[in-house]
Amino acid sequence: MARIVCLLLQLYYVVLIVRIVFAWVPSPPAPLLPVARAVAALTDPLLVPLRRVIPTARVGGGAIDFSPIVLFLAIFILQGLFCG
């Protein structure tokens, strides 16, 4: 059971990295649009509530979203608990 949890956490970690990369691309190319939507569908249920709680930091003309960093930390902690 722990192996499955570890695998799922690792996969979600990769999906979250892909989400961050897609966030840097204003409009993904058409062939990647279904992938971008799937990644958003997998990450939004956790990122959206975090964004409500964690304020976005304004830096110059842009903003920094800390919710993925908090989610990375949560995954790291869960991996420590379940994966040793």
Topology readout:
Blueprint lengths: L1 H23 L8 H21 L3 E3 L2 E3 L2 H17 L1
Antiparallel strand pairs: 1-2
Helix pairs in contact: 1-2, 1-3, 2-3
Folded structure, characterized:
With 84 residues, the chain is mainly α. It has one domain (2-54, 64-83). Helix content is 73%, strand content 7%. The protein contains three helices and two strands. It has helices at residues 2-24, 33-53, 67-83; strands at 57-59, 62-64. The longest helix is centred in the first third of the chain and has 23 residues, at 2-24. The two termini are 13 Å apart. The model has no long low-confidence stretch (mean pLDDT 94).
Number of domains: 1
Gyration radius over CA: 14 Å
Q: Please state the overall shape, judged from the principal axes of the Cα atoms.
A: flat
Strand order of the largest sheet: 1-2
In terms of DSSP E residues, the strand content is: 5-15%
Query: How many helices?
Result: 3
Order of helices and strands: HHEEH
Subunit organisation of the chains: single chain
- Tell me the total number of β-strands: 2
Q: Tell me the span between the first and last alpha carbons.
A: 13 Å
The computed structural class is mainly alpha
Q: Percent of residues in helical segments?
A: over 70%
Uncertain stretches:
none
State mean pLDDT (0 to 100 scale).
Answer: 94
Main β-sheet: number of strands, strand sense, barrel status?
2 strands, antiparallel
